[in-house]
Amino acid sequence: MNSLQKEPILDALFEEWDVLDDVLSSLSGDAWFTPTALPGWTVHDVTAHLIGTESLLAGISAPHTTIDVRGLAHVRNEIGAFNEEWVEGLRGCSGPEMLERFRMIVARRRSELGEMTDEMFAAETTTPVGPAPYLRFMRIRVFDCWMHELDLRDALGMPGDEGGLRGETAFAEIAGAVAFLVGKRGKAPDGSRITLELTGPLARNIHIAVDGRAAVVDELPSEATTTVTLDSRLFTRLAGGRTTAADHRDEIALSGDTDAGKRIVDNLAFTI
Question: For 77-126, how does the pLDDT look when each residue is reduced to its tens digit (9 = 90+)?
Fold first, then answer.
């Protein structure tokens, strides 16, 4: 299973579900219908999506809906259409019903994951990033659930800890895309050396060297040609497509080749 370790990934996933339970169990009344940063989705809709994805992995089909979800403005692909089937299918459920559905499906998924062998976790399966070991899919689930925890907290004005095991495990999915985002999307020039200085709960320096193609490296061969400094909380939301750098210019410091830096921060979104 390469460098993936089963215990920390599953521990992070189970912890994430517990935290989501805490957030959802605190809701009442109209709070369930608070709009989030995701186009067209409320807190209720995000919860339906979480229930739907875990239900898919448990072999449960989406509820029937008469709405053509592919015609909705914010549905751009088949994954989006699948998500929307659950959102529409559970739209009539009350808040307490949604919480109970969430608890039931994550309890089932905990049990199923607990019974899986190492061989099953190593087996290749279809994931949102293409064929990959099932354990990698579970790390993607940590990322997805963690990002949606942030969506709920941001919408509800409910701060939380964004570091720790959940944040570090989720961030590994973002880190794996950084070279592509900087080199392909951000069009960092050949020969450039980029440092992303993240402050905050997931503080770290990420170094990218562009030599024909961009690659994350432990150390740059010489001084960075562009340095981008921002809080990890903002970086995470930019990577998740929840906001844009244009809305946070005063929170992002650029030095060196600032044109390259601006292109990079303007093109950090990588989620579908």
Answer: 455 566 678 888 899 999 999 999 999 999 999 999 999 999 999 999 99
Q: Read off the DSSP letter of residue 76.
A: -
Distance of CA 162 to the CA centre of its chain: 12
Strand ranges (E), the chain: 124-125, 132-133, 193-199, 204-211, 213-217, 226-231, 253-256
CATH of domain 6-157+165-173: 1.20.120.450
Between CA 136 and CA 94 the distance in angstroms is 33
Q: What CATH architecture does domain 176-265 belong to? A: 2-Layer Sandwich (3.30)
Task: Specify the 3-state DSSP secondary structure of 126.
Answer: coil
* Burial profile 116-125: b = 16 or more Cβ within 10 angstroms, e = fewer: eeeeebeeee
Q: Where are the domains of the chain?
A: 6-157+165-173, 176-265
Domains 6-157+165-173 and 176-265 share a fold: no
Parallel, antiparallel or unpaired: strands 213-217 and 204-211? antiparallel
For residue 164, is it left (φ>0), alpha (ψ between -120 and 50) or beta?
A: left
Mean pLDDT of the 60-66 span: 73
Model confidence, pTM: 0.92
CA dihedral 168, 109, 153, 139 (to 10 degrees): 20
Q: Which of 120, 141, 143, 150 is nearest to 54 (CA)?
A: 141
Contact 28, 80 (CB under 8 A): no
Work out the average pLDDT over 115-143: 96
